Structure to design on (85 residues):
């Protein structure tokens, strides 16, 4: 799988090596990995260091649907129907 992630400019002068910059980068990474069905919602929350509602809000801000068929199947540990084809 090829995954391309655009790293947004960090606002407020934060840098990646600073805690605030790292936190923003992890949220962005978690959201994009979730969008590509590379991780589950729970894994995204853990990577981003966010609670359920906070991660759901982060996804909504990026217009990423909370649940796709693939993410639902990953969350219940079942391969999507088209996975073997």
């Amino acid at each position: 799988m090829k995954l391309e992630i655009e790293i947004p400019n960090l606002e407020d002068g934060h840098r990646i090596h600073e805690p605030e910059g790292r936190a923003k980068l992890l949220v962005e990474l978690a959201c994009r990995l979730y969008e590509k069905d590379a991780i589950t919602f729970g894994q995204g929350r853990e990577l981003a260091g966010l609670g359920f509602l906070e991660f759901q809000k982060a996804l909504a801000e990026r217009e990423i649907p909370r649940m796709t068929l693939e993410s639902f199947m990953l969350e219940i540990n079942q391969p999507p129907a088209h996975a073997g084809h």
Notes: The radius of gyration is 14 Å. Residues 19-75 form one domain. Residues 31 and 62 are 8 Å apart (CA to CA). The first helix runs from residue 19 to 35.
